[in-house]
């Protein structure tokens, strides 16, 4: 991840932090608290462990996510949102709502149904 040295707008910084196919989904999956790498991998369809680890490393370096390592064998690591990450989660939840509205407007609710994501029913 590369954050620009010279920015014309603070949104450029945030864009640099969250750009990438999986970062907003990782932030969303961490909304309920500490989560293991294996659980994140199960919860995010089609993400590879390599890509998950890369994005987690970048989110940690930008102060969005942090991790707790439990000593002993086997080593156990849990990831969680930092204060900055919880603030960013508010924006991600709004993005989720906009995505749901968009899908409902176009009659693309099969995915929402399959994943158990609630949505407003179209009247008519």
UniProtKB/TrEMBL annotation:
The keyword Nucleotide-binding does not apply. Residues 9-107 form the HTH hxlR-type domain. It holds the Pfam family HxlR. InterPro entries: HTH_HxlR, WH-like_DNA-bd_sf, WH_DNA-bd_sf. Keywords: DNA-binding, Transcription, Transcription regulation. The keyword DNA-binding applies. It comes from the Bacteria. Coiled coil: none annotated. This is Transcriptional regulator. The lineage of its organism: Bacteria, Bacillati, Bacillota, Bacilli, Bacillales.
């Amino acid at each position: 991840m590369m954050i620009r040295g010279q920015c014309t707008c603070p949104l450029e910084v945030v864009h640099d932090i969250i750009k990438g196919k999986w970062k907003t989904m990782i932030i969303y999956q961490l909304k309920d608290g500490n989560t293991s790498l294996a659980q994140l991998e199960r919860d995010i369809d089609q993400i590879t462990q390599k890509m998950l680890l890369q994005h987690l490393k970048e989110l940690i370096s930008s102060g969005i996510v942090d991790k707790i390592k439990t000593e002993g064998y086997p080593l156990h690591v849990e990831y969680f949102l930092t204060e900055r990450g919880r603030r960013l989660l508010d924006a991600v939840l709004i993005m989720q709502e906009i995505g749901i509205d968009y899908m409902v407007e176009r009659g693309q609710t099969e995915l929402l149904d399959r994943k158990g994501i609630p949505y407003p029913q179209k009247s008519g």
